[in-house]
Amino acid sequence: MTTPRDDDALPERLLDAALHYHAPLPTPREEMWVAIAAARRRRHAVRRIARPLAWSLALAAALVLGIGIGRHGWLGGAPRGAAPVAAGAAPGAPYRVAAAQYLARTDVLLTDFRAVSRTGRLDPQFLASARDLLTTTRLMLDSPAGNDPHLQILLQDLELVLAQITQLPTEAVGRTELDLINQGLTQRSVVARIRAATPAAGAPARTIGAL
Amino acid sequence: MTVTVRSPVQDAELIARARAGDPAAERALYEAHVDRVYRLAYRLAGDDDRARDYTQETFIRAFERLREFRGEARFSTWLHAIALSVALNGLRQVKRLRRYETSLQDGQDVAGTGREAEPDLKRRLAEAIDALPEGYRTVFVMHDVEGYTHDEIGAALGVEAGTSKAQLSRARAKLRFVLADFAGEWVS
User: Within an 8 Å CB–CB cutoff, is residue B86 touching chain A?
Assistant: First the structure.
C-alpha cells in the first residue's frame, strides 16, 4: 500500500463547493437543551418504574415458563420422548421470558392492526400500545436478546413496522399507507415469524416428555 | 465557523462537578461542545430533525455515562465517539427503512432518470459525497468539510490516524473520478 499523502487535497473550487454539503443551520441550543432535560427526566422515571416491574414480571413468567418447559418440552429444549425437564429449571435467562411476552403482545397488536386498518381509523389507545411496543423493541435490541441473530432480524423488522404504525394519524389514515404496512407484514411473513419464535403458550397442552 | 479551543483542564473541572450532580456544570459542558456535535450531526444527516435527535441522544448518553469517562482522551474526543456512533447507527437505520420502503413500492416509481438540465457542481458533488462508502464519507466530511484533524478523527472513530488519512485519500480520488467532467471548471 502506498503511503497516503495530504498533498492530494481537492482543488479549492471543489472544496468551496463541499462546504455547501449539508450546510448546517444555526445550532438550536436552547430547544435541544430543553429536549435533553425532558428526555432524561422521562427515562429516569421510566427506569424507576420499569426496573422492579420488569424483574417481577420476568421472574413470574420465568417460573410459569419453566414449569411449561418441564411439562411440555416447549422451546424445543428436550427432544420428543426425552426425559422430562425438572419444573422450574428454565434454561433461558429472564430476558428470554421477557422476549416471549413481548412477542406475544406484538402478535396481538399486529393482528389487531390488520382488522383495524380496514376501517381506516386508528384508536389512540392502539397507537399508544404501538409506541410502547416500539420502545420495548428498542430496549430488546439493546438487551442480550438482541444478540440472538434470528431474534435480532425479527426485532429489526418489527422496529420498522412499529415505527411506521406509530407515525400514522388517528383519523382518516390514507389507504396507501395502510396497504404499504400490510404488504410489508405479508411479504416478510412478520406475524408468522413472530409465532414461530414464540413458545406456544396458548396451544393445547401436550404431554410429550411429561410424566 | 468559529472554533473555540477548550483546555482539558476546564473540561476536567466541569466533569468533576457534573459527576457530583451539579446541573450548571452539565449545562456548561453542553454549551462548550454542542456546536461541533450538532454541526457534525447535521453534515452527516443532512436534515435538521435528525441532526437534533442525534445531538440530543449524544448528550443524554454522555451525561448518563459520565462516570465511565476516565479522562484518558479529551472529553471532546469521547463525546465525538458517542456522537458518531449515534449518528452512524441512526443513518444505517434510515437507510434500511428506505430500502424496505423501496422494495415494497415494487419499482413503481423510478428515481430521476437524469434527463434534467446538467446539474451544477454543488449538486453533483453532494450526490457524489452521499454515494461514498460510509467510512470514506465520514472522514471526508470531518476533515475536508468540518476541519477535524486526522488524530481527532482517528480517536473518535477508534482507528489509527493513518487509516483516516488513507480513507480521505480514497474518498478524494473517488470524488475526482466521479466529477471528472467538471475538471475544466477547477483546472485553471
Answer: no
Residue B98 and residue B49 share a domain: yes
- What pLDDT shows up at residue B129? 96
Q: Do A20 and B166 touch (CB under 8 A)?
A: no
Contact status, residue B74 vs residue B11, Cβ threshold 8 Å: yes
Q: Are residues B96 and B130 in the same domain?
A: no
Alpha-carbon distance of A162 to B55, in angstroms, equals: 24
Asked whether residue B112 is assigned to any structural domain, the reply reads no
Interface of B with A in 118-157 (CB under 8 A): 121-122, 125-126, 129, 140-141, 144-145
Assess whether B3 and B89 both reside in one domain: yes
Residue B85, domain member (yes or no)? yes
* Cross-chain residue pair A14–B175, CB shorter than 8 Å: yes
Please report whether residue B187 resides in a domain. Answer: no
Residue B31 within a domain = yes
CATH code for the domain in which residue B17 is found: 1.10.1740.10
Q: Are B80 and B20 within one domain?
A: yes
Using a CB-CB cut-off of 8 Å, the residues of chain A touching B48 are 25, 28
Same-domain pairing of B13 and B39: yes
Q: Are residues B8 and B87 in the same domain?
A: yes
Q: Whole domain around residue B149: which residue ranges?
A: 120-181
ipTM of predicted complex: 0.83
B21 touches chain A (CB under 8 A): no
Q: pLDDT tens across A33-51, in order?
A: 999 999 898 887 776 665 5
Number of domains in chain B: 2
What was the pLDDT predicted at A202? 40
CB contact (8 A) between residue A183 and residue B104: yes
CB contact under 8 A, A24 and B42: yes
Task: Indicate if B79 and B141 belong to the same structural domain.
Answer: no
pLDDT band at B82 (very low <50, low <70, confident <90, very high): very high
| A26, pLDDT greater than 70 | yes
Cβ contacts of A13 on chain B, cutoff 8 Å: 121, 185-186
